[in-house]
Write a structure and sequence with these properties.
By secondary structure, this protein is an alpha/beta fold. The chain has 3 domains: 106 residues, Alpha-helical ferredoxin (Fumarate Reductase Iron-sulfur Protein, Chain B, domain 2, Orthogonal Bundle); 163 residues, FAD/NAD(P)-binding domain (3-Layer(bba) Sandwich), CATH 3.50.50; 143 residues, FAD/NAD(P)-binding domain (3-Layer(bba) Sandwich). 35% of the residues lie in helices and 19% in strands. It is built from 17 helices and 17 strands. The chain has a 5-stranded parallel sheet with strand order 3-2-1-4-17, with helices on both faces. Strands 6-13-7-8-9 form a 5-stranded parallel sheet. It has a 3-stranded antiparallel sheet with strand order 10-11-12, with no helix packed on it. A hairpin with a 2-residue loop joins strand 10 and strand 11. Helix 6 runs antiparallel to helix 8, helix 9 runs parallel beside helix 17 and helix 14 packs parallel to helix 15. The chain is globular and about 65 Å long.
């Protein structure tokens, strides 16, 4: 019989389980860490940052106690630098390129220093940016996630008026709804959003859905330009027997519910939990299942650890939280008893002829009273191509050029919906920023706006 239940832990235990994963640096620690930077002339850390933050410059600001200046340097390049300081895989980006790795095998803690600076500015309540003179142009941004917010803020700084349309009750996108709770605590996504909107010139309209409440053709007609930061709205299915059993859940939806729950214990969790997938969502789901009180949590991934979308750091974090990672196994069917999940049958896999993943025929069963699907997401094109206009799609993504222009005049796109690079917050921010620059240039140039 299923043993899914909530409130397994005490309120104090839940508070501890979902406390900040990496507490902020103190001033003393930040100064010591900043002193380790070599301030490279041709800094490889800057090259490794998708948004091109001038990392030596902001660290110099911290070292000289000009923390406000350091934060402004960060946010000028990446307006969501506070979030990225918390969730970026710095070990494979800026810190992975740090020359200190070659000298003492420990990079400068760039992410922690970035958080120190941006947190200082947010607490002060200062607004370091001033809008340019009004241009009289209006731009519609669809989606209040990282790409849409970055695009809107950059356009507002340039003097344009922006209206953001968001289908959810709150802005923030994955920052608000999709990141593990222990990585983004104290309502930070909303505090960062408030800071961004305080610039002025940006109107956020929540509860409006593209394809239902508004249509792309109408936006193109009403606004001078449109930016689509709609993300990936659909979750992939396993397509195996037993997938519809009670106890089989979508990891993305569960994480969203957990992030919005005032009482973490109200979400029922099983004792034996299996998570299917190998990306960051699978890791976040597995760790949070453990922190909610699950006794046994297993991640099952069809390839090896080197092929997992989750970084080595994230995989290690899962294991130190008591999660078992089983690689080279694929789900065959989900077993049920008394109308609920009782286990999952898995098959060992290998790379066969021509490099194709294949089953070995060797199967085994893991007990499970709850199974989470974290096997990726996909674009739902109905809202786009059902809005009286057609965008060119390829490989399940919106086709754009280097400036993030789509094949439709006056329409740009960015973020996970275009998937030019890794599905990271920092990459989405850069998409929004580059699109804003392109939109501004096109609006300044006059007729012949957008399109390829």
């Amino acid at each position: 019989m299923s043993d899914i239940a909530g409130h397994r832990l005490s309120p104090a235990d839940y508070a501890e389980a979902f406390a900040d994963l990496t507490p902020p640096l103190s001033r003393k620690t930040a100064l010591v860490e900043a002193s380790r930077c070599l301030f490279c002339y041709d800094a490889p850390c800057v090259e490794a940052c998708p948004t091109g933050i001038d990392i030596p410059r902001f660290i110099r600001g911290i070292q000289t106690d000009n923390v406000r200046g350091a934060a402004t340097t960060i946010l000028d390049a990446n307006i969501l630098g506070g979030t990225c300081a918390r969730v970026c895989p710095t070990e494979i980006l800026c810190e992975g390129a740090c020359v200190r790795l070659d000298q003492d095998h420990e990079p400068v803690a760039i992410g922690a220093l970035q958080r120190y600076a941006t947190d200082f500015l947010f607490v002060s309540g200062e607004q370091p940016f001033v809008r340019a003179a009004a241009t009289g142009k209006r731009i519609a941004v669809v989606g209040a996630g990282p790409a849409g917010l970055a695009c809107a803020h950059h356009l507002a700084r340039l003097g344009h008026e922006v209206v953001i349309f968001e289908r959810r009750p709150k802005g923030g996108g994955l920052n608000e709804y999709g990141i593990a709770t222990y990585k983004m605590t104290d309502n930070f996504a909303q505090r960062e959003l408030d800071f961004l909107l305080a610039l002025g010139g940006i109107e956020l309209r929540c509860g409006t859905t593209l394809g239902e409440d508004l249509h792309l053709a109408d936006l193109v007609h009403e606004f001078d330009a449109v930016f689509l930061g709609i993300g990936l709205g659909g979750s992939n299915a396993l397509r195996i027997e037993g997938e519809d059993l009670p106890g089989v859940e979508n990891a993305v939806a569960f994480i969203e519910a957990l992030r919005q729950a005032p009482d973490k214990g109200e979400l029922p969790i099983g004792r034996d939990v299996v998570v299917i997938g190998g990306g960051n969502t699978a890791i976040d789901m597995a760790i949070q299942a453990r922190r909610l009180g699950a006794e046994n949590v297993t991640i099952a991934y069809r390839r090896g650890s080197a092929q997992m979308g989750a970084t080595g750091y994230e995989q290690e974090l899962a294991q130190t939280n008591g999660v078992t990672i089983r690689t080279w196994v694929a789900p065959v069917r989900i077993l049920g008893a008394d109308g609920a999940v009782s286990g999952i049958e898995l098959e060992h896999t290998r790379i066969g002829e021509g490099g194709v993943l294949a089953g070995t025929g060797e199967r085994f069963v893991l007990p499970a009273d709850q199974v989470f699907k974290a096997v990726g997401q996909h674009l739902v094109p109905a809202a786009l191509n059902g809005s009286a206009m057609r965008l060119e799609l390829a490989g399940g993504k919106v086709v754009v050029d280097a400036e993030r222009r789509t094949t439709l005049p006056k329409v740009w796109a960015g973020g996970d919906a275009i998937g030019l690079d890794q599905d990271l917050t920092v990459v989405a921010v850069e998409d929004g920023k580059q699109a804003a620059r392109s939109i501004h240039h096109a609006l300044s140039a006059g007729p012949g706006l957008g399109g390829n």
